[in-house]
Each structure stands twice: as structure tokens, then as C-alpha cells.
Amino acid sequence: MSILVESAPSPELVVEIAYRISNAEGHTQHYTIKLDSQSARLLNQPPANPPAWTRLDVCQCTNCPLDVAAHPHCPLAVQLAQVVEDWATVFSFQDVAYSVTTNERQFSGTTEVKKILGSLLGLIMATSDCPRMSFLRPLARFHLPLASPEETAFRALSAYLLEQYFVAPEKVSTATFDGFIERYKEIQTVNEGLSARIREASQESAVIDAVLGLDLLAHRVPFFARETVETLRPLFAFPSPDIA
Fold first, then answer.
1. pTM score
2. 41 pLDDT higher than 90
3. How far apart are CA 43 and CA 7, in angstroms?
4. Nearest alpha-carbon partner for 86 in 26, 17, 19, 28
5. Has residue 206 been placed in a domain?
6. What is the tens place of the pLDDT at every residue in 78-130?
7. Domain assignment of residue 147, yes or no
8. How many angstroms separate the CA atoms of 201 and 203, rounded?
9. Domain that residue 187 falls in
10. How far is Cα 178 from Cα 92, in angstroms, rounded to an integer?
């Protein structure tokens, strides 16, 4: 994946996350995702000539607030175009070797291609300019590849509550799951639209199954968030420090 960035911020303001994915047939792809360290906005420039299926009016999400005149292409789809092209003919359950390198550490192992692609797609989707996904940028800033549903629920709910603290600290003690659940319903709608888009590019694709996996996760996260609160309650039952 050729990496271009829209601007050239100083190196200390850029977070780089590098994916390397290889299958047994020697099909290897490298992707370097560059994020603004303060906003977690994706700095990678989209392709100059994006494919037709990335046009905003192709399977546009029913909850999309963007206007075709101002945004001829879906800001999420154009950022995924290269990954879709690279893996359009690869079988979903094929095992691949992967490594993910962040500024702080490296992850590596073997897994099904649809799972590691789901991790990569989720990162790109969260940091793109899609207005329905932007609330996930804090999680992307501290990216955790191949996170379990429980880990994702814990991180997502923690980020949501921290956001509530920044917005209205006096209301944190009365925060509910309602807004959190509504956001994940929006993600489910985006995933449905994205799946339809990708089918315009390829009928058989590991990328389609990767998006379906993300959609399943989006359905499960609110449930796991509620369960996580209860199962983790004992972890927070530590004695309070004495206050003089």
C-alpha cells in the first residue's frame, strides 16, 4: 500500500501503525497507517482515482449525513479501496501470518485472514472522515489488534465515559448506556452499507467477511458492555485509601 499523507506534521505528532500480512502462497501486503496523535484522524491520502464503488451515491448508508454534491466519494470507502483490491480474491478462512507494529510495541502471530483484515479495516474506519465513526478515534489512537469482544467492550465503554467526563463532568455519575448503544446502532448501519458497497467490487472476498465480522462485533459490544460492568465490578472493590 503506497502511503501518502495530506500534510507533513512533525514526527512526534504522528502515530504510525504498520500491518504486514502474508499467506502461504506468498501474497504479502504492507500497510502503514498514519494518525494525528492529538485527534487520531487518518493522515493517509486516499487514491487519486478511486473505484466507482466508493462514490457516495453507491449504496449510501441510510444514516449518512453527507451530501453527494459536497462529498462525491464516501470518505470511509476511499480509504479502504486499496485493502479491498489487495484481498478481493482471497478465501476468508485462509490462515495468514501477520505482524502489527505500533510506536510502542509489536504484535505477531497466525490467524484467519478475515480476522486480521477486520482489525485493519476497523482501524481505518474509525479514523476516516466518516461522521458516524469518529467517536471511535480514541480507541484507534491506542489500537489493540484482534481485541476480543470483552476487551473491545471494556475499552469502548471506558472511552465513552471519559468523553462524558470531558463534555459534562457533573453528569458522569448519572451516565447511562443509552447514548453508547445508539452509537453502536449507527455503526451497524454503516457496516450494512459498507458490505453492500464491497459486493459491488467483489462477490467473493475475505474483506466482505471481515466487515461482517465487524458488524457482528458492533452488535455484541453493547451486550458485552453491560456484562463487563458486572463481571469487572470485583476488580474495583479495592479498599479506598485513607483520607486525612
1. 0.86
2. yes
3. 7
4. 28
5. yes
6. 999 999 888 888 878 889 999 999 989 999 999 999 899 999 999 999 999 99
7. yes
8. 7
9. 11-236
10. 34
